[in-house]
Amino acid sequence: VIVHDVNELTEKLFPIVEAMQKHFSAGSGTYYSDSIFFLSVAMHRIMPKEITQIIQVDLDLKYKTNIRDLFDEFDNFPEGAVIGIAREMQPVYRHTFWQYRRENPQTKVGDPPPDGLPGFNSGVLLLNLEAMRESKLYNQLLEPTMVQKLTEKYHFKGHLGDQDFFTMVGMEHPELFHVLDCTWNRQLCTWWKDHGYSDVFDQYFQCEGEVKIYHGNCNTPIPED
Asked: How many distinct structural domains can be found in the chain?
């Protein structure tokens, strides 16, 4: 077991993700303490080189299968992919990308699966640190100028930290991601159903198959066995 001090991690993270925070944080401007919500984005630059793969998960999860099975998903990464992540199961990014969608009526950005690009949910993340270190493209995308360029292109202003960054990058470079089946991150939050999107909500929320991990996001109760 290796214990990492949260203050030390934040200190290392801050210079890398400072430019992202004004685009993907809830507050206006850049908060030093917020940088921990971007840990996954730069994990490959913080962890020792001998650590090549990491699963990073939220606390509000319930496991219905052996976590070892999730590690097997690393073997399914296509060439060029650096991160494994499931799709967002609410129309949150349909909302966030409203201006881009209005200007580009033919876009799949923000549309529901299977053909649309609903964005990602970072509750369950597979980080191939070795691939992240080696990917010239991924590391270029961490540069402040690239972040600025993409946020301007998509008129993007989010508040969900790393999840927003991965979602925006995924619209531009889907090849960097291995999309996990929804059963590996079965999100339960239905907030957007009651906030203007009841007509399309179920297109995002449906998930076929036996659930492997429940995610009780937005404080949603997780079903008992």
From this structure: 1
